[in-house]
Specification:
Blueprint: H1 2-8, H2 32-41, H3 56-62, E1 73-82, E2 85-92, E3 95-103, H4 126-138, E4 147-153, E5 156-161, E6 166-167, H5 168-183, H6 209-228, E7 231-232, E8 241-244, E9 249-252, E10 259-260, H7 277-282, H8 287-303, H9 313-322, H10 334-339, H11 358-361, H12 365-370
Antiparallel strand pairs: 1-2, 2-3, 3-5, 4-5, 6-8, 7-10, 8-9
Helix pairs in contact: 6-8
Length: about 375
């Protein structure tokens, strides 16, 4: 029952409205031509400086023309697949970049063998795809992935992004392998015993606490920026934190489920292990839900698994609803352990009104000390 609630929460309907006396005008469906024309009218980058020095070359490449075009991007290889898109590595006007592809519902022209190919992804409504592109275009935050252009082709929308080296999930796994090699033991298990997760048996963290707090602090900066603009991110997890360059600066990426906090319902999808309890109870989560997911992210980096990982989705969601959070690894500092406790003012309390706001969290010593650190060493 809980699982069904999680999967269909965005499809709930309110009271049936009365039939209007006059028939409203039928909205015209978007066409490939109208979408392409809209995207060509958007201005990207303008004369504004880039959000970070390391994106200056890509920023300058975007300012060379009026808008991005298909022939501006040379695809080298596909590097990621998701439920709502693919990501390719290549060059944009000669500068290394990433290209995100989203198929548009009712407009996409499928390539031969598309449906049978690994990583085939579902089409999304054009309005949803355009909303994500428009949001990325408007953001100028150093802790959010930079987008420098967008174009339409064959019923698809392509967004040009800065290129990352790996995501935070890969970093966590690499730290787990290093720790196992140093200890001469197997890496921490991915499936955690029920009724709730537990940390590695020796009490050590998987990702060192300073590194984990640094990543969480930079993600918090991105969330605070979004919340100031009344945007709920809604899909925080290690796979959606991209690391840039050789030093591994983290940025938030994949805004497919981001929405204005005044919208009544979130978009479908998301990870059950990161679902805030209020999402299961009321079918919606606001900025406090992002704060909760930040707590789950920090916990996973430290313990190697989320506090709610179980053998099935139903059991995972039951653990989330119960709100029983096991203690983090014994090696964690008292400040971090208190932050991850499911108590008032903690990130993982089941009551969203008791969670601290992202802006207030920035002043907590754990995050204030970590956010200005140099990026930690990346394990092999």
């Amino acid at each position: 029952m809980i699982r069904g609630c999680f999967q269909t929460m965005s499809a709930r309907r309110g009271p049936v409205a009365r039939r209007p006396t006059s028939k409203p005008a039928k909205p015209q469906p978007a066409s490939a031509h109208s979408i392409e024309a809209d995207l060509k009218s958007w201005r990207w980058c303008d004369d504004a400086p880039p959000p970070r020095a390391d994106v200056a070359a890509l920023w300058a490449a975007a300012q060379q023309g009026t808008h991005a075009r298909r022939r501006d991007f040379v695809i080298e290889t596909r590097i990621a697949d998701g439920g709502a898109g693919r990501v390719y590595r290549g060059t944009f006007r000669g500068v290394p970049a990433a290209l995100k592809e989203v198929r548009l519902e009712g407009l996409s022209v499928d390539e031969p063998g598309d449906a049978a190919a690994p990583g085939f992804f579902a089409a999304v409504p054009p309005a949803r795809a355009l909303a994500e592109a428009a949001l990325l275009r408007s953001l100028r935050c150093p802790d959010v992935v930079a987008a420098v252009g967008c174009f339409a082709d064959c019923g698809r929308i392509f967004t040009v992004l800065e290129l990352g080296t790996r995501d935070l999930l890969e970093v966590k796994k690499a730290w787990g392998r290093r720790r196992a090699a140093e200890d001469g033991a197997a890496p921490p298990a991915c499936v955690v015993p029920e009724p709730a997760g537990r940390a590695p048996e020796d009490g050590a963290t998987v990702v060192p606490e300073p590194a984990a707090c640094f990543y969480a602090a930079r993600v918090l900066e991105a969330l605070a920026h979004l919340h100031e603009r009344r945007i709920v991110y809604g899909d925080l997890k290690p796979e959606n934190v991209l690391l840039l360059g050789t030093h591994g600066r983290p940025v938030l990426c994949d805004f497919d489920r981001a929405r204005d906090e005044r919208e009544p319902r979130p978009r479908p999808g998301g990870s059950p292990e990161y679902a805030p309890p209020e999402l299961l109870d009321a079918g919606a989560a606001g900025p406090a839900g992002d704060v909760y997911q930040l707590g789950v992210l920090l916990y996973e980096l430290l313990a190697g698994a989320t506090p709610f990982k179980a053998s099935s989705v139903d059991r995972t969601l039951a653990l989330v609803a119960r709100g029983a959070v096991p203690p983090p690894p014994a090696a964690c500092s008292r400040a971090v352990a208190a932050l991850l406790a499911p108590t008032a003012s903690g990130l993982l309390t089941s009551k969203p009104k008791l969670r601290p706001r992202a802006a207030a969290l920035r002043d907590r010593p754990v995050f204030a000390a970590a956010r200005d650190m140099d990026p930690p060493e990346l394990p092999d």
